[in-house]
Amino acid sequence: MLANATALGNWVRRTTLYAGLGLFLLSFFLRAVGYDTGWDCAFWALLAGGQHDDKISSLAVFGGLINFEILLFLCLLPFRAVELLRSLIALIILFSIPMTWVAIHRMSIAGLSMDIGPGHVLWVSGILLVVLPDAPQYLAYRSVRWLGISAALIAGWFCVPLVISLTMHPGNEKDDFFYVAAWTFREPGICGKIDANAIGRADQREDIELSYMQSDCYRNVGVLLHNPKSCDDLKSAGVDRLTGSAFTKAQCRKERYTAGTAMPLDGEHFVHVMRSVVHEEEVQAWQNRIDASRVAAPVTDKDYWDYYGYLSLDVVEPWSLEQPDLRRDFVKRVLAIQ
Fold first, then answer.
1. Which of 32, 102, 192, 319 is most solvent-facing, going by the fewest CB within 10 Å?
2. Residue 306 — pLDDT band, cuts 50, 70, 90?
3. CA dist., res. 247 & res. 11, Å (int)
4. How far separated are the first and last CA of the chain, in Å rounded?
5. Domain limits of the chain?
6. What angle do CA 19, 23, 26 make, to 5 degrees?
7. SS3 assignment for the chain
């Protein structure tokens, strides 16, 4: 009975190993990441460490080295005398997989096309099938256990932003409108209307980590108002989140300068939301007051832009004494948007 169980176990391990090796080899001929095949990615990843492009993550080199590590692991399989070495190589392989994902995540944030294809899925699946069946043997060595714990902690540290990003999503046209309006009218209350999980705009990123649009809004409006308390509403989308975003808030309180306004990402979408706040009749009435000879015509997107620009003026024009009232009314309407 014991012999049969041993034989069955060996057969399962061999089958799993061959299946994993097959998936691993097949993955090189399929689309892996972006538009590149597994072969392209393997070659490109090895060169990542020497690239001088800010969009290229040096961590991508882990993905290139895994292929050689797998080959070395397979070559050492028949030799029991080097089981410790094989265990260490397996540990390095398992550590390299999440590092590769972190690299993909960072380059995706930087604007590169990093969509995961079937080749990458088969590549990772094949690696795990090759390495994991003998995992209990690796843990028999104390040195491997301690290194495994250390590797898990390091990988977890790097993966925190990746995990947080799974809860985030791009902002919609209303979020962008609130973001711009809050800056223009220096009203932190409008920042609070931005979706709490909306991803911050790319023009606000100083590194390869995502930010929250709402937090970026609070930070910039707080600087404009010289109000450090606005920094209390910030939250980090990176590792600093584990400390309650303490570093992010501290940096915010030290900030002394920011641009006085922000431009919409999409003018058409901005005006679309603007039309839900201000009626066409109001824009027409305003146009008639500043130009009595104006011929009546349908209100265009440009007219809405001109009206928004008028409301955003910090200094009241000599020909109009009603701007502050219209401005306050506009802010109230924006705050009332559901």
1. 319
2. confident
3. 54
4. 70
5. 2-165, 169-254, 267-336
6. 135
7. CHHHHHHHHHHHHHHHHHHHHHHHHHHCCCEEECCEEHHHHHHHHHCHHHCCCCCCCHHHHHHHHHHHHHHHHHHHCCCHHHHHHHHHHHHHHHHHHHHHHHHHHHHHHCCCCCCECHHHHHHHHHHHHHHHHHHHHHCCCHHHHHHHHHHHHHHHHHHHHHHHHCCCEECCHHHHHHHHHHHHHCCHHHHCCCCCCEECCHHHCCCCCCCEHHHHHHHHHHHHHCCHHHHHHCCCCCHHHHHCCHHHHHHHHHCCCCCCCCCCCCHHHHHHHHHHHCCHHHHHHHHHHHCCCCCCCCCCHHHHHHHHHHHCCCCCCCCCCCHHHHHHHHHHHHHHCC
Confidence class of residue 3 from pLDDT cuts 50, 70 and 90?
low
**Residues 174-199 pLDDT 10s:** 999 999 999 988 999 999 999 999 99
Q: Which two tokens stand for residue 175?
A: 């979020």
Q: What are the pLDDT digits (tens) for 8-28?
A: 666 777 888 889 999 999 999
Least reliable range by pLDDT among 152-161, 294-303, 329-338 = 294-303
pTM of the shown model: 0.81
14 phi, psi to nearest 5 deg: -65, -45
Residue 324, judged by CB atoms within 10 A of its CB (0-12, 13-18, 19+), counts as: exposed
From 46, 60, 72, 43, select the one nearest 97 (Cα to Cα).
60
**Alpha-carbon distance 305 to 177, whole Å?**
13
C-alpha distance from residue 86 to each of 6, 94, 100, 163, 242 (Å):
22, 12, 21, 30, 35
- Mean pLDDT calculated for residue range 277-287: 85
Q: What are phi and psi of 199, to 5 degrees?
A: -75, 135
